[in-house]
Specification:
With 740 residues, the protein is mostly helical. It has a two-stranded antiparallel ribbon. Strand 1 and strand 2 (726-730) form a beta hairpin. The radius of gyration is 50 Å and the shape is elongated.
Length: 740
């Protein structure tokens, strides 16, 4: 059978005919639910009555209702019930169908001892579109029971129908008060009953209290009607239902038990407290989550722009790369790097170092050629044409991508590390080797190369790390030159020694610009942590918190500071401190941000502490004075103040704390050691020129120094004297330990 034939009427009837009928040779088509059941014992009138009730129904409810009604009728007929009585009970099919639809049940039709004329009344009371079927079924049972009591009490059927009226307000009151019989005792008009319903609903009381209020109001209106007052007069004298409901509710609440009122006041207080906490928190959370930093400049892009202006033939970095390629692949360099060469050729492990140096002349040539170039020329984000054939050698140094720098404050300096870790130690050992071999010219060139490497280090991005590495390397060069001059006074010619003295003095005077360092760190942090309103101000952002968490990982003290603000256990081993998924972060981030200072205020505080910090490093101080430095006092003052600890949280996390005092002292010691070395070299030059050592440091002014060298730790002149024909220079603030 194809699809076209199936569309014909006859075929459709065959397809929709039950199998039982087809086996009898009948084509009936689809059958109604009543036709599927055995109704042979029913008269046509009863079947039509059942059909009138079930036809308005649909779906499974219709099938279920038909089956149950047929079963009930069959049982009642077998028990001797008259068929006319069943038909009478089904004489209001529309109301019965509506009640079945509302209650999903049919048992009440024959079980409820009510006349069929009351089914419309029951429908008006029970059926309510806002009520679920289980509530409607319970209400139906209660209404049928109360109406039965009314009939048993002698009330006429017509009287009950008249009392119920339209039943709209009565239905609402029945559900609100769970009382029907009491309400039927008050034959009030629909207008008055609607007012009672309105007041009861607005009162929002317990069901028992609603019942009492409803009965009181019904009694009030019923008494008025008995006295002859009209509906309009009663409604006007009653006033506003809203006002009446408010007064009734207030009076009823005062009469409730003390324990309940105490609980209510407690919950009200908690609700108010929650409101005043939650609403501001939501406002702060929205502001916090909506805040995005505005990135206006890229620090590394500016450095790359300057490096690209350097001619390629004047860039030292490609030559350094070639030497590093061979040196970094040699595992023996690690052993060489750990050797203590503090005493130069007199060091205990000098023979091992010398053997290693002699095996790598190729690397030395590359480093010497690189040192002859005036500029380092390192490019953080190189293009293919920036490095040409050296691009693959440069790959390990290209970790500062533009995407990473958009939201990250840290900047990788792998080239600074390699210049300090590989190139500088290798050239230092080579200078010792040439000195041992007596080749003064090559040793002179190697010292110039070491100074050139220090110069290239100073060209790395301006930051405290670069400053510390530069000072450390310059100090080593000065001490090595001092030792060589002391051990072999005539090793260098006058011109060579004078050249080295002047270049070393230039490197000592060369310092990073504090304003440049401040601009790099403060401006870059502020643009990545704050919004920008275009007027130099803005508010803190979620990315700023992420940066602070990353920075705090490098210090246990600062980890504890950040954890304390977010109620995280200070003994927790979680290195990430916080993440956006932590409950503490979700709850406390927005309030904490609201207390952090705005962008302009934060910039001023950074500037203030940076000035104190750079003043501290330039003037120095003894260990005792250092502990009482103005910078540390200002820093500790912020940390000790609870409001300022949150307000200036970025300052406390980014700026050095007490744990970094040793770093300050090391910078002072570097300056002192360089001054001592320069003074001794100047004394040797003076001896060569005058034939004798200077008697005082004033003899070296102005030929070698613009003023008498001063100990930056104490502010006093260095101590100078001649012992056993040798010049001796001392400084009070100098640490005993010498850098390696």
């Amino acid at each position: 059978m194809n699809a076209v034939s199936a569309e014909k009427f006859d075929w459709k009837k065959v397809l929709q005919t039950p199998v039982s009928q087809l086996m009898r040779g009948k084509v009936t088509g689809p059958q109604e639910p009543l036709e599927l059941l055995d109704t042979s014992a029913f008269s046509d009138r009863l079947v039509e009555a059942l059909r009138a009730v079930t036809d308005p129904l649909s779906g499974r409810l219709r099938v279920k209702s038909v089956r149950r009604l047929v079963q009930s009728c069959s049982s009642l007929l077998r028990e001797g019930c008259a068929e006319s009585q069943l038909i009478e009970q089904l004489s209001e099919p529309a109301s019965i169908a509506t009640l079945i639809r509302a209650t999903r049940n049919t048992d009440w039709i024959f079980n409820a001892p009510l006349p069929a004329r009351l089914w419309p009344v029951v429908e008006r009371i029970v059926v309510n579109p806002r009520i679920k079927w289980w509530s409607a079924r319970r209400m139906l049972r209660r209404v049928c029971q109360n109406l039965r009591w009314q009939l048993d009490a002698g009330h006429a059927l017509d009287e009950i129908i008249l009392q119920c009226g339209d039943g709209v307000a009565l239905s609402g009151l029945a559900y609100e008060t769970e009382a029907v019989g009491e309400l039927l005792d008050y034959p009030l008009p629909e207008s008055l009953m609607s007012v009672v319903l309105d007041v009861v609903q607005r009162s929002r009381l317990w069901p028992d209290e609603k019942r009492e209020v409803a009965l009181e109001l019904c009694t009030h209106f019923a008494d008025g009607l008995e006295k002859g007052e009209s509906e309009a007069v009663l409604l006007e004298s009653f006033g506003s239902p809203q006002t009446a409901a408010k007064l009734i509710r207030r009076a009823r609440l005062r009469n409730r038990p003390l324990a309940w009122r105490a609980r209510r006041r407690t919950w009200q207080g908690l609700g108010i407290l929650l409101f005043f906490i939650l609403v501001p928190w939501l406002i702060l959370a929205v502001r916090f989550l909506a805040a995005e930093p505005t990135i206006k400049f890229d620090v590394l892009q500016e450095y790359d722009r300057q490096s690209r202006t350097i001619p390629r033939q004047e860039r030292a970095w490609p030559l350094y790369l070639q030497g590093l390629e061979y040196l970094k692949e040699n595992r023996e360099f690690e052993t060489y790097r750990e050797l203590d060469l503090t005493k130069g050729t007199a060091s205990a492990h000098w023979s091992e170092a010398k053997a290693f140096l002699k095996q790598h002349p190729r690397e030395l040539d590359f480093f010497l050629k690189a040192a002859q170039q005036p500029e380092l020329g390192f490019i953080y984000r190189p293009l293919t044409n920036d490095l040409g054939k050296f691009r693959e050698l440069n790959r390990p140094y290209e970790d500062n991508t533009a995407d990473r720098q958009q939201t990250n404050l840290s900047i990788g300096l792998p080239h600074l590390q390699d210049l300090s870790y590989y190139v500088a130690p290798f050239l230092r050992g080579a200078s010792f080797l040439t000195a041992e071999q007596g080749d003064s010219e090559k040793c002179f060139q190697l010292f110039l190369a070491r100074l050139a490497v220090a110069e290239h280090i100073s060209q790395v991005i301006a930051c405290p790390v670069t400053y510390m590495v530069l000072n450390a390397k310059t100090t080593l060069i000065a001490q090595d030159l001092e030792r060589l001059v002391k051990e072999e006074p005539e090793f260098f010619t006058d011109d060579q020694l004078t050249t080295l003295f002047r270049k070393l003095k230039m490197m000592q005077e060369k310092s990073l610009d504090p304003g440049q360092v401040e601009w790099l760190f403060i401006s870059d942090f502020l643009q990545k942590a704050y919004t920008d309103d275009g007027k130099g101000n803005g508010r803190f952002t979620a990315n700023g918190f992420r940066i602070l968490c990353d920075l705090a990982n490098y210090s246990e003290q600062k980890q504890d500071l950040l954890k304390s603000l977010f109620l995280v256990d200070s003994h927790s081993q979680n290195r990430s401190i916080l993440s956006s998924q932590d409950p503490q972060y979700k709850i406390l981030a927005a309030p904490v941000v609201a207390m952090i200072a705005d962008r302009k205020t934060m910039r001023d505080k950074f500037h203030e502490l940076f000035q104190l910090l750079w003043s501290e490093q330039s003037t120095g101080g003894s260990a005792q004075n250092q502990a009482e430095s103005r910078y540390l006092e200002a820093y500790q003052s912020l940390r000790d103040s609870a409001p300022d600890r949150i307000r200036y949280l970025p300052v406390l996390l980014l700026m050095p704390d007490k744990a970094s005092n040793l770093v300050f002292l090391q910078q002072v010691n570097h300056a002192v050691q360089q001054d001592i070395a320069l003074t001794l070299i100047a004394a040797e030059l003076y001896r060569r020129e005058q034939g004798q050592l200077p008697e005082t440091l004033e003899d070296l002014v102005p030929g070698y120094f613009a003023a008498v060298p001063v100990d930056p730790g104490t502010g006093k002149p260095l101590r100078y004297q001649v012992r056993d024909g040798q010049p001796v220079v001392e400084a009070e603030s100098l640490l005993v330990e010498e850098p390696k």
